[in-house]
Amino acid sequence: MTVIGIGNDWRHDDGAGLEVARRTGGRQLDGEPIGLVSALDGADDVIIVDAVFSGAPPGTIHEFEAAVNRLPTALFGSSSTHALGVSEALEIARSLGRLPARVRVLGIEGARFDYGRGLSPEVESAVERCTRSI
């Protein structure tokens, strides 16, 4: 199993995916999710973790099976911190025949995405729960 965390440590809770990757020995993609396409090469079972903002309570963990269904663009589409979102990057991989057989995506609901370091307490708790489950 391959763990890939996506995010930005300099935008508070946007670093949640990166922190899960650090704690599990996974791969950290800091910046644009387009790097996800090449990061999937050779993997057959992948867990991708990224911060999301949907209006749900901070610390909520959204889980999706992306090899079966397209991710909801509202949660994983491009945003102000990414020119291309996780949803679009996975669809590019799917169209190129590079999507692994199993791709689970965990979206950790964030509270703060302004400039600065450190996770909010709710997101820190969600990171710990994700790490234990992986």
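^ that was protein a. below is b, sequence first then the tokens
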Amino acid sequence: MERGFDFRVSRAEMEAFAALSGDYNPLHCDETFARRRGFGGCVVFGGLLIAKVSRLIGMELPGRDGLWSSLQMEFAASLLVGEPAQLKALVSHISEATRSVTLQLTVMSGSKAIARGKALVKLP
């Protein structure tokens, strides 16, 4: 079973995440600074991408009543504000004994892999 969704991170989402987290690193908040460091613009917070994983687990797969118990993510590339991206989760293991599922996670932007990981989700 696989679920996912397309998304773009907006400047407003970035500002809200910075205010919530207290992280005002200029790579994420200052386009001029980010460009001087070799990026094409502001880099999306890794934590904001993790928030998209939370949305997927809580709303899509497994959805309501799933309890996220662990997450591993590796970031291979940067996603820039406004770039189109896609988050996918694939059920790679189901355990009846522990009433849990393991999800393989992938964040892509076009053909570029942004992040890969896995999550363990307990079921009621």
